[in-house]
Amino acid sequence: MAGAEEMYMRALRGREKGVGSGAHLDTGHDQQISARSTPTRARWRMEEMYMRALRGREKACGVEHTSTLNTVNNLGLLYANQGKMAEAEKMSTRDLQGYKKAMGVVRLY
Predict the structure, then answer these.
(1) Which residue, 21, 31, 79, 86, shows the most beta carbons closer than 10 Å to its own?
(2) pLDDT tens track for 26-38
C-alpha cells in the first residue's frame, strides 16, 4: 500500500505543479484518491487530504457542484468512521441539501 500512496502523491505533486494546487477539478480528484489510498498507519492524514480536495473542488467547481458534494460526502464518511459524529452530521447535511438543490432528488447511497 505504501507504494501506491507514493505513486498517488507523485501524481498529485505533478498535477499541482502543472495546473495549480486545488484550483482544478482533476487536482481535487487526485487528492481524494490519495486520501483513500492512505494506509491504515497514516489515516490521520486522510482528513487533511480530503480538506485539500474539498477546497480545490469548491474553488474549481463551486460549493454546490456535485463533484464538490461527492468530496463532502467522503469527508463525512471519514468523520463517521473516526467517531466524529458532529462533524459527520454536518457534512452529511451539507451533502444532502446540496444534492436536493442540484438534482431535485435524494441520493440513496
Answers:
(1) 31
(2) 545 555 555 555 5
CA distances from 99 to 50, 90, 95 (A): 19, 14, 6
User: How far apart, in whole angstroms, are the C-alpha atoms of residue 88 and residue 80?
Assistant: 5
What is the rounded CA–CA span in Å between residue 52 and residue 35?
A: 10
pTM: 0.61
20: cell is 495549480
| Unique residue bearing C-alpha cell 480545490 | 56
Residue 82 per-residue DSSP state: T
Task: Kindly tell me the sign of the dihedral angle through the C-alpha atoms of 17, 31, 84, 2.
Answer: negative
C-alpha cell read off for 91: 457534512
